[in-house]
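All the exercises in this workshop are built on plain-text protein records. An example says more than a description, so a record of this kind follows:
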Amino acid sequence: MLGELGHQAGLAARAVVQGAAALPGMVSDAITGPVNAGLDAVAGEGNGFRFQKVASALGNIMDQTGVAKPENATERVVQDAATGAATALTGVGAGQALAQAAAGPITKALGSMMAAAPGMQAVSGATGAGASGITREAGGGAVAQGVAGIAGALAPTAVPFAAQAGVRGALRGGEAGRQRVADNIATFEEAAGTTPTLGQATQSRALQGAETGLSNVVGGSGIMVRRGEQQAEALAKSVQDLTDRLAPTASGADAGEAIARGVATFRDNVRETQQRLYNNLDRYIAPDAPITVSNTRAALQELNAGIDGAENLSAWFRNAKLNGLEKSLIADLEAAAERQAPAGSRSSVMNPAPVNLDDASLPYESIKKMRTLVGREMSDANFTSEINRDKWSKLYAALSEDLGVTAKAAGPQAEQAWTRANTFTRLASERMDQISAIVNKDAPEKIFKAATTGLADGGTQINRLMKSMPVENRREVAAAVLQRLGRAKPGQQNELGDAFSSETFLTNLANMSQPARRALFNTSGFPNLEQKITMMGRMASNRREGSKVFANPSGTARQGAMIGWAAGLGTALATGNAGAVSAALAAPVVARSIAKATTSPSVVRFAAGSTRANEALVPSAVAAAARVPVSGGERPGLRRMQESRQARLRAEN
């Protein structure tokens, strides 16, 4: 036993020495090979001195020193494999040294390539050299040994590469298919933190059909149905989590109240800005500057106009408040005119002509205050108001025109200040006119319904509304809309009325125009909200377009298939047909295995991966090519000369 152990230790030592010397031997043999060829040409083959290959010289030295050498074919092949592994590791060490010591990028890259995947390089070296040795022992020539060596060296890296590439190609095709799988995985993960099935990821009709079939057979149906339910629950949870982050208690009533609060805030902000802008006019117009109010009188006269020839009927259609405003304005103008010509003066006593209202005026401060009060009435007007917003807006516009005439007369700076204030007021008034139909409702639920009506036609209305509210109010509206997107239809609802349906979610989202989506979800101040909801829609669409089991987890086809399987198994047992019984029992096992594979996240991610060759492929191929024997090994003449020399040495000893 000790002798055998010593023999094996010697073989191991021989392999290590030969492997360590292989790399420098390649360099040395490349130099001495042409020298030997020149000597053959001059002195004739086999005559005179010749350089030995490094491997042969080391073998001779170890033979003479008594190092154990292979004694049979098995030991020779094992010796070849061990030497091949040692040679590969020597190359790895040289590559590491080169990468660390190299200054240039090319040399450094070369060293890194030589040092890559040392374990796989050792395996490739062993399999390549072993395959070459087996071919040699079987009588193969130099060419056969070289081919076997290269094939054996490439097998550990090339075979897995080819197998993975083949499987991935069969599942999803080329690069376009790989990108499609990766995109679908990203969609499911971003939308709901889950992964698609293989059919959903690849969108392959064959795989989708297979998954549909698996959902209808014993062994596979449970797995496929559970996967569909898990995806639906994950999507529902993702929608609810997003809703809670926007507004924890989102509802139609809360959203309606948020709209009312938001519009009220907008109205208050408009008033403050108006006040500030119009106050700038005070720097250029004196408070007692006279202002004629011809435009205001004309507007009130139009608003209080009666029916020609039916004065009594006209009284029913005149608004008492507006009529009172007109009379009060005329009375104030007459009083102002009388103050300009005091009673008892020569002009009033001797010329008692009626006051010309076109020449009468009121102070700037009075008209400015009246305009502010009219603006407040206009902002507060709703469907229950005595005077609607349209009538107040006509009076407000007339007052603005009268102020504008005075501002223009006061100089360019006053006119510029008035223009800025009036432009802002006009735009704000237009915005209020546009959204007044939404907020002028008697219940918050009706406000929310009015705000979200017409989302399929465009986003103009909802965009105006959202821009008119603070961010916190926008979030409440977005949360309420999002919550309703996936609310199941009445026939599919639970007792609480909060059942989620990915089909309904997709339908409602698809019915919402793109501008409406942007207005609702891009103005909420929540980062990437629209993108998140779009991903949810893509996930729901993928589930709809994919296997039918995920669109409708329950169905009669599955129940029929189960009954058919049970009937087939019963028939097989009754007839004693062992083959039929085995087939019936094996079917659920096979179906279960395939179903677990198609729903496995690791399998799906494998399909999305890129197939890359092992880093050991190139250095292993180079090493295998370097080991290819030339003309079966040493040249015959040189081999005979070496054998003759060894015989003389043995005789002398």
Q: What stands out?
A: Strands lie at 290-291, 362-363.
